Amino acid sequence: MQRVKGIGVSPGVVAGRAVVLIHRAQVLRYQIPAARLAHELRRLDESRGRTREQLVDIQARVAQRRPELSSLFDAQLLMLDDPMLLPRAADIVGEQRVNAEWAVQQVFQEFSAVFDDVADPYLRERKGDVADLVGRLRMNLRQGVATPRDLLRELDEASVLIADELTPSIAAQVDWSKVRGFGTDAGSRTYHTAILARSLDVPAVVGLHNASERVQAGQLVVIDGTAGDVLLDPTPEELARAARHADDHRPAAMVEAERRRPASTADGVPIRLDANIEFPDDLAAARYAGAEGIGLYRSEFLVTSGVDDIRDEDRQYEIYRRMLEGMAPGSVTVRTFDVDEEQLASRLSQRPLAAGWEPDEERASRQGLRGLRLSLTRPELFRVQVRALLRAARYGNLRIMFPFVSSVEQVRRARAMIVEAAADLGGRGEHVPHVPIGVMIEIPAAAYTADLLAREVDFFTIGTNDLIQYCLAVDRADERVSRLYEPVHPAILRMILMVRRAATRRRIPVSLCGEMASDPALLTLLVGLGLTEFSMTPGAIPAAKQVLAELRSDELRALARRILRLATVDEIERVLLAALGRLTLIKGVTS
Ligand code: PEP
Ligand code: MG
Predict the structure, then answer these.
(1) Assessment of whether the complete model's pTM goes beyond 0.85
(2) Is 161 found in the same domain as 132?
(3) Residue 169: nearest ligand to its CA?
(4) How many domains does the chain fold into?
């Protein structure tokens, strides 16, 4: 047995087989049972097939316009056949019994080390091509597996998560009835996740330095959140101790109690908590978590997961109707498709699903043609979605929301199409009830004109995921600048306040559905800014309820006023954490 010392941030002792998440590389490493090895190797093979088709397709399109660039893809196609790439990944899957994503990542690291050592700068630059190819292989492995939660669904009952870093938004997506506890290498900056762990009653140890490298996928591990230890290959006595603890310890009972109680602050201000979902099947998880409604249904997953033909109005109508009936009397906010041309193009190269929605081949850049903007350029497809929604509306409590809006004109044009579709359906004898129409505020231009947009719509939903990236000019996927992606940047807090005030003045509801709402510490700050409606990943709802119940809204408002006067992210984080430490009864820190 080996003992790795860390900082216990949530008490309790649990044992399980390790699942390793490398957050920096966005890969999860888990063990594959012998019976599933063939399936895992097939996934690898299918990813290779799809990758080849896509590369050949892209190469052919590029060759028409820029023949000189087409040889770049020859290099990638050659690499695809390199015995050191996919055959090597298949060996790793077989020998180490790990998932294909992890094997591909490991091969990439081996390749990188070789490239880093060569002196020739031209050859060194080829590392970028390998990275590109590996990224495509990983994307194709994700086919049918859309979220980390989908991956975690495949796990055995008793797992523990060992990660280099665990952000609250990923933590919120984990099914904690399967994953019994976690340990992270990072410690000092994961305090938000530590709060979440305590709220969920999940034993956790942070500050383990290199545990994610030391622990093997599938290795038996004990997380002792009380002592602040992680035990690798524990003795039978240690396992018995964990089992005894599990018997006394029933986190499910806490979740059960939490989910029945409507959310409110300690002084009784009601807070509405809805769920963000990607698939109609997620409705059950939303209900189970205690969501009042669906605050964001990302309907574009119908397009990007390739399950349905987006030109099939009846099929869409069936899906929306089932969701509305399933959530009634709670409301369901359906966001119209938020895809860009690139996403459609990658689907097009695989199947003729959205053949009516061809990308513009002549454009060098497709940046920004997404969401409502794209829908308005493809009225025939937008109309199909709108008609399906309006027909389904009478089976529940529907709200329609437009994504990626940057002007009043766009809203007017989209609303006019809805009015037209409703009139057409009415003319055919279909009953169409009143459906509230709202917009996502996720582009700075929309935030700055929130007072004008508020006159045009029935509700706002603030999408901080995009708002932060466009306001701070930070591409989250680019690790060189992702450090600057700061939800508590003073500019973001001011924008949120500005939008909330514009909605209050016009007396329209405003909610916030970005990932920041899943983080209990940030949620309390948002309540301090006057927001009382949120939509978040279902798993985050019980913890949000518990944290809110411990705090007074007047104290949170005073805290937000103080924070709005601060100039830097560091100061804001320090003040927020110190205040929460005082305000909340943070359990487990001292026990
Ligand atoms: C957002 O931008 O905050 C949002 C919720 O939408 P998405 O993450 O789907 O872009
Ligand atoms: Mg968005």
Answers:
(1) no
(2) no
(3) 1
(4) 4
